[in-house]
Amino acid sequence: MTSIDEAALGRPATSDAAADVLRGHIRDIQDWPQPGVVFKDITPLLATPAAFGVVIGALVDIARQRGATTIAGIEARGFLLAAPVADRLGAGLVPIRKQGKLPGPVRSATYDLEYGTATIEIHADAVRPDERVLLVDDVLATGGTAAAAHGLLAGVGAEVVGLTVLMELSFLPGRERVAPLDVVPLLTI
Ligand code: AMP
């Protein structure tokens, strides 16, 4: 049952448990893939079934709260989260992939990286207009990837009900870049 405090926060109780689990199962890798970056490695989480289950359960709660009918995952680590969430929810799964991977007709979005650009794609017929899509990824950093994914989903007619991530790096402007998309992190760093 949801208590008044939890309702006031607008978050399921499992989110707090998930934040604790993440603190214990995410490994910081210094200076990877380049100097100055602290990479948030989720492989210890993936390797620990009980911990992974708590985190997936929290993401499912968020998806239910927002009435999501479809889960969209961003390649590659977003897939590892989006697939079990969609399965537990009984929702459809839409992959947003790096350029050149999807076999059917696609729509593309290109966005700036620190050095150069990146392109992601979605199947043009991936969603129907009445679908409520929750976007899922592991980390929200500068927000470029999520903003591009949001644009792709909106472009194919989806109603995007939010972006949920395991970790939001709050010292970077990701949240502003994806605005007005509702961002729901399990853990804010
Ligand atoms: P951004 O577009 O800058 O928000 O970067 C988000 C994407 O890059 C996500 O798909 C993440 O998987 C990945 N990413 C960015 N920064 C990190 C980090 N410090 N640790 C792990 N993954 C990251």
Automatic annotation (TrEMBL):
Statement: the UniProt record of this protein carries the keyword Cytoplasm: yes
Reactions catalysed: AMP + diphosphate = 5-phospho-alpha-D-ribose 1-diphosphate + adenine
Documented EC number(s): 2.4.2.7
Domain Phosphoribosyltransferase intervals: 45-167
Any GO BP: AMP salvage
MF terms in GO: adenine binding; adenine phosphoribosyltransferase activity; AMP binding
Class of this enzyme: transferase
Pfam families attached to this UniProt entry: Pribosyltran (PF00156)
Alphabetical list of Gene3D superfamilies matching this protein: 3.40.50.2020
Pathway: Purine metabolism; AMP biosynthesis via salvage pathway; AMP from adenine: step 1/1
UniProt keyword list: Cytoplasm, Glycosyltransferase, Purine salvage, Transferase
NCBIfam families cross-referenced by the UniProt entry: apt, PRK02304.1-3, PRK02304.1-5
Quaternary context: Homodimer.
Family of this protein: Belongs to the purine/pyrimidine phosphoribosyltransferase family.
Name of the protein described by the UniProt record: Adenine phosphoribosyltransferase
Organism ancestry: Bacteria, Bacillati, Actinomycetota, Actinomycetes, Frankiales
The gene coding this protein: apt
